[in-house]
Amino acid sequence: MQTPVQMYRIGRKKNRFKGAGFFLKVGTLLFLIATPFLFPSFKIVDLAMNIIIFSVLVASFDILLGYTGILSFAHGMFFGIGAYCVALLMGQYGGPSYVHLALGLLLGVVAAAALALVISFLSLRVKAIFFAMVTLAIAELAIVLATKLSGFTGGEDGISLNMPGIFAVSHHMGHFLGIEIGGRIFTYYLILFGSVILFFLMIRFTHSPLGRVLQAIRDNTRRAEALGYKTFIFQVVSILFGCVVASIAGAFYAMWVGYVNPESCLGVMTIMLDVLLMVIIGGMGTLYGAIVGAGLLKTAQTFLPDLQHLAKIVFPHVAFIHQFLERWLLLFGVLFILVVILFPKGVIGSMREYMARRT
Amino acid sequence: MPEAILKAQGVHTYIGQHHILQGVSFEARSDAVTVLVGRNGAGKSTSLKTIMGLLPPSQGSITFRAAEIQRKKPYEIARLGIGFVPEDMGIFSNLTVEENMKVAMLREDRETLRRLEAITDLLPDLGKFWTANAGNLSGGQKQMLAIARAIVNETALLLIDEPSKGLAPIIVEALIDTINRIKEHSVVLLVEQNFHMAGAVGDYFYILDDGLVVRGGDMEELAGDEALKSRYLGISAAVEK
Amino acid sequence: MAGALAAFKKRSGEVSLAAAVVLFMLPLLWIPGKIYLTLTIAGLAMGMLIFLVASGLSIIFGLMDVLNFAHGALFAWGAYTGFSVFKLMRVWVGADSVLKNVGVFSVAVAAALLAVAVLGMLLERGLIRRVYGSHLFQILITFGAMVVLVELIRVFWGPNDEVIVQPLTFRGSWDMQGVIVERYRVLCIMIGLLVYAMIQIVLKKTKLGTIVRAGVENREMVQAMGHNISRIFTGVFAAGAALAALGGVAMSVFDRQVYPDMGGTYLLFAFIVVIIGGLGSITGSLLGALIVGLAYNYVAYLVPWAAAAVNVLIMIIILLIRPTGLFPAGG
């Protein structure tokens, strides 16, 4: 005789290949795979790659925020650590080779894991608000160190790097289906492949028994403890996982962009604000919201210059609008506040709530 | 029939998802002490908090001196002349006794100062520990301070939540004395689980059970009815002798 | 042994203080005495300015349980308001007259206090009110407010660093037998002490201050005793904001510059101070700020790149051994 919970789970498993959700997910994946061929322009491919990388980053942040209930301002730092480790081993202290790439990735993972352990212990010691402040302080410290220890990290000027072998930008292999096949395309598919795996792992994590316990802990820590779960172990594991994935996302970023510096990889106003925006717009605690958030925000950022240009044409004399659009950070800040107040559940969150109400 | 200074009708209150008060109706008659009795979790404290505006009722009405107060904020309700002594007494431990009283006094006019003097006469310990930290007072003294704070203004209705909780019997006697003195000036609505206390000061009673008022009447009626007491007040009533 | 430990815990505030004093004598091993004294004055001055920012943050959290990430932006707005006053009254700034110099400084401070208090009120009523009770959303919303406020500085005043001219009276230093003591630094220390004293007086000797202290302990009870706690909150928030603004003006004259992101660095210092000193404790904020200021200056002299790191390190150590700070009870 099966319990209601078992029947529910079996029913869910059976239905996971039907329904709108499934088609959307598969559709998005196919779209991303086809993008280089649908849009030969590098600008679009670059946009797609950024969306993919940031989806992974934001989803890993969601594991901390939405599933474990922890707000860490240091997440951008982990991204930067992954990026810098790859850059250091492929640029500053090594060269473009597969061995160095693998070492760089590994180093990033190890460094991230070590720091994540420190952070997780801190999170258990102090209340959420202190934790947020401390992670902010640590993140800022990381930027200062990266800038000041320029002998080691390249300082404000950053580090350039090149991919090895067939992934090198200079590698050309001719044409296929109307687009140029070379290092860029291979790198794109490599990172896409890696990202899909990471994303898949994150989904499995949240659906696993561990993930479910985490949600119980997030919703009511005392009750979870009373039920016998050693909550701190779960929290530590979850934070470790989220931070390590963030670091790998950073490594991907370094691999694609070929250049790292404190502002673009560690910056709180750059990376952290973007991540926060994306997770709020997409929806906390939904993982897929990360894709939506990353998609919307990165697209907006990419086409903002065009929007500014358009505004100059349509409203040539209204200087205020030009000023306003120029300060895109201001726009994002205002947008962020509005979303937090009006749509705290984000796109996916609101959709899910709507669907739940209909049934 | 003496008029009711406070009327609650059909009040529903939720705490989160829990439906604590499921349509309570009761009155506090002027110049008398009304006691709300009942088991733990019946909704007694919630009733007082709802009157005080600390918990918003989802339905029903509460009138004080014929004016509706269920939508008012706590500070407005306090200023209408309702004093509140919560279950945990709400003493400001980091402040002195004097400072506690200062926060309580809404106006420092002659009337209030006269009342303050009368209170310190009634409760001499307060005068003795005037400049001491309120956190250092004994349980009984804290309870006296909490009551003093609630009556130093022109209080027409005094709400007290389980004043005898955790106090030694001899202190409870002093408390009974104090409340009997207070009822000469204010109407008192008391929540108690200790039946001895309830019987000693109360004139009228209401029994709350599972968020509803199940019985009400004169205190003598309840005092004599053993079956009623054990049914709604638990075993403690039988032990109360 | 157990008795000794218990006694230690009871007087731990004093013990930590004694330990701190000993610790701060350590640099004398590496730094020559006269320079040590100069650095000490510099550290105390910097500490006082940080105290101004941190005190507001601490009170707001202590009373309203709100962590205001936009506090640094309010600091910057104060500084920029002062900058505008200095620009408008530049004749007085450059004048060789104590009266005019002190006058223009006072006007700058008054303008900053007023402007940012209003800004603080708007912020509290418009945004903070909506998120009482949820720390997560407070953090998010005030973070967003910080971004917007800093960007608005760029819109109204331009994105560049601007120079603040130090009025003549405030420039220069005294030479006390080889020890260089900068005039303005001494002024900062005096301002800090004055503000500390004023806050303590208001909190301990006025009725409003007593109500605020009662509210820190039990917000609900204060409401039930007839006080409109929301209006008090708005007032306290505005006061905390004004304190940050004062810090901003003083700091801008100290540094001789203003720049849009100046709030960020000092917000961080303020956080560190509040963690070290204990949330809700004014005395804790003062001592924590002095510790941070001194540590920064000593380390900056010995190992320049480690100056920022040292304070983060202290913060982490305090968090690990005494998460509630050195003076948790408040006062």
Overview of this protein structure:
The complex is a heterotrimer of chains A (359), B (241) and C (331). Chain A is built from 17 helices and four strands. Chain A has helices at residues 4-15, 19-38, 42-67, 75-92, 98-125, 128-148, 150-153, 183-207, 209-219, 221-226, 231-257, 262-265, 268-282, 288-314, 319-326, 328-342, 346-358, and strands spanning 159-160, 172-176, 179-182, 259-260. The model of chain A has no long low-confidence stretch (mean pLDDT 83). Chain B is built from eleven helices and ten strands. Chain B is globular. Chain B has helices at 44-52, 74-79, 97-104, 110-122, 124-128, 139-151, 169-182, 195-201, 219-224, 226-233, 236-239; strands at residues 4-15, 18-29, 33-38, 57-64, 67-68, 82-85, 157-161, 187-191, 204-209, 212-218. In chain B, the strands form two sheets. A six-stranded mixed beta sheet of chain B has the order 6-7-8-3-9-10, sandwiched between helices. By secondary structure, chain B is of the alpha/beta class. Chain C contains 14 helices and four strands. The longest helix of chain C has 32 residues, at 33-64. The model of chain C has no long low-confidence stretch (mean pLDDT 85). The A-C interface holds A 69, 71, 122, 125-130, 132-134, 136-138, 140-141, 144-145, 148-149, 269, 273, 276, 280, 323-324, 327, 329-330, 332-334, 336-337, 340-341, 344 and C 61, 67, 127, 130, 135-137, 139-141, 143-145, 147-148, 151-152, 154-155, 264, 268, 271-272, 274-275, 305, 308-309, 312, 315-316, 319-320, 323.
